[in-house]
Design brief:
The complex is a heterodimer of chains A (429) and B (226).
Chain A: H1 10-20, H2 23-31, H3 43-48, H4 60-69, H5 74-79, H6 89-101, H7 108-112, H8 119-133, H9 138-150, H10 158-172, E1 185-187, H11 191-196, H12 199-211, E2 215-216, H13 227-231, H14 234-251, E3 255-258, H15 262-276, E4 283-286, H16 287-296, E5 310-313, H17 327-335, E6 339-340, H18 365-382, E7 386-389, H19 392-404, E8 411-413, H20 414-420, H21 424-428
Helix pairs in contact in A: 1-4, 1-8, 6-8, 10-12, 12-20, 14-15, 16-17, 18-19
Chain B: H1 3-11, H2 13-34, H3 50-60, H4 74-92, H5 94-104, H6 113-136, H7 138-143, H8 146-165, H9 180-196, H10 204-222
Helix pairs in contact in B: 1-2, 1-9, 2-9, 3-10, 4-6, 6-8, 8-9
Classes of the chains: A alpha/beta (429), B mainly alpha (226).
Chain lengths: 429, 226
Amino acid sequence: MLEARKAPDAAKAAAEFVAQAGRDVAFQLEACVHCGQCAEACHFHLVTREPHHTPVYKLRPMLKAYRRSRAPFAGIQRLLGLAPREPGAAELTAWSELLYDSCNLCGRCTLVCPMGIDIAGLVRRAREGMAAAGFAPEDLYKASGHALDTGSPIGVRWPALRRQIELQEKETGLRIPVDVEGADYLVILSSIEVIAFPEVIGALARIFRQADVSWTIPSAGFEATNIGVQIGSRDIAAALLERVVDAAERLKVKYVISPECGHAYSALRWEGPNLLGRPLPFKVVQITELLDQLVREGRLRLRGKDARRLAFHDPCQLVRRGGLTEEPGRLMDAVSENTVRTPAQGAANFCCGGGGGVSAIHRAERLRFAAFELKKRQVEQAGAEALVTACANCRNVLEEAIDERGMTLPVLGLTELVAQYLEPEAAKS
Amino acid sequence: MTSVGLLEFARGPALWFSLGVLIAGSLWRVFAIWRLGARVDLSEPRSTHLAAGALRGIFARMLIRKDFRNSRNLGSFNAYLYHIGLAFIVFGYLPHIRFVERLTGIAWPALPGWLMYVAVGPTVVGLLIALLERLSDPVRRLLSGFDDYFSWLVTFLPLLTGMAAVNQSPALESAAPLYPLPVAIHLLSVELMFLWLPFGKLGHAFLVFFSRGITGAALQRKGAAI
């Protein structure tokens, strides 16, 4: 697949678009009434007002290929010369910006569509055609290569993680279990956490110590992110997932904890079994779900709360697309005495602008910074003094955008915030 | 052909042909998509009440979600206006009910005549606004093609010809129209819509249940907002 970029092939893209069009996809491609409401839900359209940023318009090449080859009346249309032409290389090159740079797969368009079309899901499918045929952004091909070679899209290998673990062991005074066979929970991490937010490892150690959770980190197969689902390659996605499954099977764990990373959760929890073609031999639990469970069971004892006006940024793949609608709010209430709500918080929250692989596409940087304007307005409207989130990529993207705007607004990780308010005695013991 | 002959044609062969195309075309469109098949989702569901999710998807999307209601939704509110207006006129007007009864033997109580006259105005205006928005709004203009404009036309024509035929169409099965030509033209315009409906975007009349249901079930499976 990575070789495809050297010789982009429009016919291959069209064939893959058509291959993606099973029953569910076809019903949705057929149902659009061109009302344009999805445009008013898309942060990229809202900030640029460019009509071509309308979410459903991004599907046009896929729709053309489908209508030409697979739609119910395709045969008659071709016979009469009324079938649309297959998308050509120039068109697909132009659409690369629409299907990647200006789509976070955030699903706000899906939520608003009066016809119930899962536009984000269809964009995810369209990316399969784009990636297979060589029309995905170069940065994502490179990141995919890194992920296949090293396990991480940014080249984070075990020695780097081991070093961070050692530092966190010194910091917390706790031993961090590595490759412990028979542990209940396997913790996997995103590269961004390892490099930019390693404190989360220490936070987990403190939390699991107090809650008496049996856990371990694998020295191989620790990468949670999955560039395959972002670029749109089921082969790459499956290959990366296999590494996590191998680690879980090797260490005989019952659960795999999906860390603070939105798309990692989607990739493992919802797409994983379908990409691998078999049910997972373990249960997937997102860290927010587990923390919420531990607090509700009384296994985590919290003391004190953050007094600042804190707003929660809902990671799209956890909340809107992932179904974790209650857990973050309950955890926020447990550690914050002054939680403020931003407009449309929850399922209709605006994306950070970097999801769906966009944060890895250098040429999309200006657009995602522009999209941050909406989030900025919401934060200001709510009067938040800090943002909290449960996705390291969101956190990183938000910090970059905040910095670019010259703002001063801390962005905190929810896991670290929970660890900060653990009952002190218990944390020490 | 005389106007009476045209009416007989519209009530006879043209009607049956267009109904045949409408039914066969719609059934084929659904069947051809259905037979593409769907893969079994192997992920562990958070909820197994998928039928409930599908139904919620079908009904919940009839209303604009609170988070998205704003001044830019004029087009959406207008869509309510002309959809409801069309439903009143098509299913509530006595001559239409008599027409269906003649074909199928099924009848139901009609809405008051005055309500029909009240419904026609907003429906016509709503459809005209829909067209103007499609032509003037950059997003809708970009998304639109022949199907959109032709579908609008075949929806608007029956309304227009129906207004011209009003009071000409008999309320009683036995009565003959005073002026057969307007009724014939009205019927032919309806038949044109029947002929087009299975092939273009007017198919959303039945496709909407599938697309909303599929997404509703998928989101329910994840426990996500529908």
